[in-house]
Structure formats: C-alpha cells, structure tokens
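Structure (tokenized):
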C-alpha cells in the first residue's frame, strides 16, 4: 500500500521555524520527485517546493525562496521541508506528493498524495 505521511505542522509565532516531514512507503522513493504544496483558507492550492530524485535539484516558489529549504533522505524514504522566518501568510495545510517524473506545479500530475499537516503562523 502506498502511503505518504506528512507531519510536523503546528502553531508558531511569526519569525519562527518548523520542519515538516514526509514519510513514504509502498513505492520506490528514489525514483520519484517529491513536491510540497499548500492550501490556505479560501485560496487555491499552491506549489511550494519540489526536489527531483535524479540530481536533488530543487525548485521553490518565489514566496518562500530564501526561507524554506527542502531536503530528502532516501535511506529513510523521507523528505523534509525546513521552514524559517515564517509569516502569517504561510498559514495553510501543507501536503507532500510524489511524481514519477519531472517536478511540476500541476498538482493533478502527481501520483501520490499525503494527508496534509496544518501550519498556523500567528502575528
């Protein structure tokens, strides 16, 4: 059974940090790019970051560049999103997803999705 388990969300003050984890099972993690998406209340789902499996090159949304860092540990089948200097506008449910191919911001293209973890940033 394929599973993506996102965790690590919580309530944090503006300027604080969180680390989200995405634990994968049931598929060959090394063969998949991993993406992080978020959905804020009343807004469309937004691509936050994506890391390719081939060379670990990473894309970031302009809104998080310089503040968020993506890492992955293929030995543990886990991806991480390190979020620093958090802002109230980062408040959203964060999802991880896996795609057997290139990174893309088109959410429908992803093969597997996690259940989401809530991040709330207070001002």
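Design, position by position:
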């Amino acid at each position: 059974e394929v599973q993506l388990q996102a965790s690590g969300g919580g309530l944090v003050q503006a300027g604080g940090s969180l680390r989200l984890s995405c634990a994968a099972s049931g598929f060959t993690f090394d063969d998949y790019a991993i993406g992080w998406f978020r959905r804020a209340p009343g807004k469309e789902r937004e691509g936050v970051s994506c890391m390719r499996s081939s060379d670990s090159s990473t894309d970031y949304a302009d809104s998080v560049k310089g503040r968020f860092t993506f890492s992955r540990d293929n030995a543990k089948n886990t991806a991480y999103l390190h979020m620093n200097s958090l802002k109230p506008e980062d408040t959203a449910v964060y999802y991880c997803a896996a795609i057997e191919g290139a990174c893309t911001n088109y959410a429908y293209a992803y093969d597997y999705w996690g259940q989401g973890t809530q991040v709330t940033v207070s001002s």
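Reviewer-requested clarification: The chain has a mean pLDDT of 95. The chain has no helices and eleven strands.
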